[in-house]
Amino acid sequence: MPLQQILTPPKCTVSPLFLGRGESASTIVVFVIVTSFPDTERTASFDAGSDTDPNLEWSIVLAHHRDPERVGRSVRLAPGDSLELGRASEAFGLSSMNDEHLSRKHLRLTVDARGNLQAVDDDSRNGSYLNGARIAMGRVSSGDVIGIGRLLLLAERVARCTPDEEVIDDDGHDDDAGASQAWTRCVRAADRVAQRNTPVLVWGPTGAGKDRLARRIHRRSGCRGEFVVLRCGSFGENAASVLLGEDGRSELEAARDGTLYLDGIDDAPEALQAALLELLEHGRLRRPDTGRTAQLTVRFIASAREDPRAVAGVRQDFLHRISGWVVPVPALRKRRSDVVRLMNVFARRYAGEGVGLHPELVFRLLRHPWPGNVRELEAVIERAVVERREESLITEFPELDDILVDAREPAAISTMSRAPRARQAWVVAASGRWFVTPEGEKQHLERRKILARLLGALVAARRDRPGERLTVADLLAAAWPEDRFVGTAGANRVYVALATLRKLGLRDVVVRTDGGYVIDPDARVQIIED
User: Fold this and answer.
1) 380/382 Cα distance (integer angstroms)
2) pLDDT, tens digit, for every residue of 84-103?
3) For residue 454, what is the domain's CATH number?
4) Residues 321 and 435 grouped into a single domain
5) What crossing angle do the helices spanning 181-193 and 210-221 adopt, rounded to 10°?
6) In the chain, at which end, N or C, are there fewer CB atoms within 10 A of the end residue's CB?
7) 422 pLDDT more than 60
8) pLDDT band at 46 (very low <50, low <70, confident <90, very high)
9) Residue 293 domain-assigned (yes or no)
């Protein structure tokens, strides 16, 4: 057999370097260079970055499971550790991987001495997936999603934690929910200062959870008064007078013996900072015009979008008083395991118990960078609940592509990815007065003239001007021909009417694109002249 055939695995080449003789005259030693080319169908390599600190370890989080109660469980892997995942594995609890789609030995995760994580498929029957690509072997980066059987796993690189940094959630409030080590550090820092009267500064990007920490501190402080929010950016140069009120009674009276939350001190005008400094130092507010003062005893918590100690715009004397205890809150993209926890918290909040998330929706939520942080995630889940088609499952919705622009739907995420949708046949009247779904359900719109006109306009564009998108103005003119609209007036009428059409059965037919609204070009639509 030729030497190259013996030494060369698939997708490799062998190049001779030089020949030499061994100690025996009959022995020939061949030195070769083996060059490997990845098999694109079986191997997906993802850059793990340069963070090869052996003091870091990996958290493998169960991100999707058919039993929502198991979601969020995690396993830690340190350098040198290996984890075998398969049908018999108890990595995430007894019977957690009892799945007929899994092989007995399905996937092996190994962390090398430098802290890099590698995933190797154990010749499983249904395959393993890394970020939507089926792999035989792949290097895993922090934030990658692994699909095996009916499960989705999130891999996240984290610092080794001490016992007092273990993830906790003992407050009983959904608003405090989190699963990451980074959020746990924030929560523990908040708890340590809660019962002290030390002013607290919480800083981090918009929507990251600063107000959640502030409310937790208030709850645990023992304060008898209320939690009062002061939007610092809403004040002008007469801040002190506004705070005191015209009759000398402070607008902040509700915060007496409670907590005053100064939201956005990096937007506070200098006059407001000066007034608050007086309150911080002496417990009173002074009107600059009359010199009248009002006494007020409160607990102070302030927030900022970035560390105000490193930017201009905040008075140093005010900053020194307000930043007695500082808690930085990282962006959601830096603590992706919190996405796992929060998306299920919000699903329960808006849909109730027992409602799960479709795995492909979970995949896309995990891969999105979340520039709007927790606030954006909550808005997406709420929209998905409103748009859901099944009572027991929250799925993707038509406008999701417009929101999650950086997390397009993958070709596959695991063996339970849905098959390509069959093209569906719809029957629609050219006038828009009725339509029939592929299941044979007929909807009559004769008495709902606005809806019939909207549908008729969309059908006419499909029939006479294929590919043309109808703008909101076009649809206003078609549905309300007797009215005249200026600018964006009347747009809400269109949105409400189109939402009604979708609820009546046209959810997969009437779609929105960058250029306007159109009947889905990929949908099979039969137009009947009536």
Assistant:
1) 5
2) 999 889 999 888 888 878 99
3) 1.10.10.10
4) no
5) 40
6) N
7) no
8) very low
9) yes
Q: What is the model's pLDDT at position 250?
A: 63
Q: Domain boundary at 328, 349, 367, which? A: 328
Residues 189 and 318 in one domain: yes
Q: Is residue 333 part of a domain?
A: no
Count of the separate structural domains present in the chain:
3
Element (H, E) at 107: strand 107-111
Last residue of a domain, one of 328, 361, 395: 328
Look up residue 200 and give its two tokens.
């607290």
The answer as to whether 505 is a domain residue is yes
**Mean pLDDT, range 286-307, rounded to an integer:** 80
- The closest alpha carbon to 175, from 118, 217, 134, belongs to 217
How many CA atoms lie within 13 Å of 377's alpha carbon, on the beta-carbon side? 30
Nearest to 140 by CA among 254, 234, 44: 44
Helix (H) or strand (E) holding 526: strand 524-528
| Domain with 18 in it | 3-36
Is pLDDT of 367 > 70?
yes
CATH number, domain of 204, equals: 3.40.50.300
Q: What is the 3-state secondary structure (H, E, C) of 435-482?
A: EECCCCCEEECCCCHHHHHHHHHHHHHHHHCCCCCECHHHHHHHHCCC
Residues 323 and 430 placed together within one structural domain of the fold: no
Mean pLDDT of 437-462: 89
State the greatest distance between any 2 C-alpha atoms of the chain, in Å, as a whole number.
110
Stretch among 116-120, 283-287, 352-356, 383-387 having the lowest mean pLDDT: 283-287
Bridge partners of residue 528, in order along the sequence: 429
Residue 116 located in a structural domain: no
Q: Pseudo-torsion of CA 351, 355, 356, 361, nearest 10°? A: -30
Structure tokens, 218: 């208030």
Residue 20 pLDDT more than 50?
no
Whole-angstrom Cα distance, residue 103 to residue 105?
Answer: 5
